[in-house]
Amino acid sequence: xxxxxxxxxxxLMIQFVLGNFANGFIALVNxxxxxxxxxxxxxxxxxxxxxxxxxxxxxVLVLNSYATVFNLAFYNTEARLIMxxxxxxxxxxxxxxxxxxxxxxxxxIANFSNRCFLHLKWKAKRVVLMIFLGTxxxxxxxxxxxxxxxxxxxxxxxxxxxxxxxxxxxVHISSVTVFILVNFIPFTMSLTAVLLLIFSMWKHVKKxxxxxxxxxxxxxxxxxxxxxxxxxxxxxxxxxxxSQITSLLNSSTLQSISVRTLCQVLGLMYPSxxxxxxxFGNKKLRQAFLxxxxxxxxxxxxxx
Length: 304
Fold this sequence. Notes:
This protein has nine helices and no strands. By secondary structure, the protein is mostly helical. The termini are far apart. The relative contact order is 0.12.
C-alpha cells in the first residue's frame, strides 16, 4: 500500500506540473498575441480565461489533497472553508468556460437552415456572453449551499451535538444534489453541442458526396477538430465528476490514503490533459508549442 501511495502521489505531481505548464502556455501565448496585435478573438479570450481558471483548480485540488492526507497545521476549519469556496469558484469557471467554448464552436462551425439557429449564429459572441453571465447566479447559489454546509460542519466538530449532526447530514445531501445539478446542466449543453456538430457534419458530407466532391474538405476537417475538442472534454469531465462525487460522498473507503489519492489523480486528468488537447486543436497554439519543442534542438545544433 505504501508503494501504491508513492506511485499515485508521483502521478499526482506529474499531472500537476504538466497541467500548470499547458495552461500557463495557453495563457502566455494568447496574452503575448494580444499585446502584439492589440486584439484577441472570442475563442482566444475564452481559452485564456479557461487556462487561468484551470491553473487555480489544479492548485486547489493538489493543496487540498496534501493538506488532508498529511493533516497540515495551517489547514484549520477557516482555511478549509476558504479552500472549498475557491474550489467551487475555480471549478465553476473551468466548467462553464469549456461549455461556452463548445457552444461557440457549434454556432461558428455548424450549418443549419433553421431561422432561430441562424439568428443565434449571427449573434454568437453575444449569446455565449449572456449564457456565461447567467451562470453567475448558479455560482452564487452553489457558494451559499457549500458555505452553509462547511459552517455547520465546523460547529458539529467543535460541539458534537446530535441534532446538528442530523441537520448536517441533510445539508450534505443537499450540497451533493446541488453539485450534481450544477455539473449536469453544462454537461448536457456540451453533449447537445457535440451531437449537433456530428449531425451538421453528416449533412455536409452527404451533400459533398452527392455533388461528387468527396468528403475531406476544409469544413469537414474543422468539424472533426471541434468534435475532438468537445468529446475529449466530455470524457475527461465524466472522470473528474465521478472522482469528485466519490470524494463528496465521504464513504468509509476514502479513509484509505491510496483511494483518496487515486480520486485526486483521476480528478487532475481533466484540467491537465484536456489543455494539451486544446493546444493541438488550435493552429496558433500548436505552431507555438512545436516551435518551443524545436528550440532545444536548434540550440544544441548551434553549440555543435
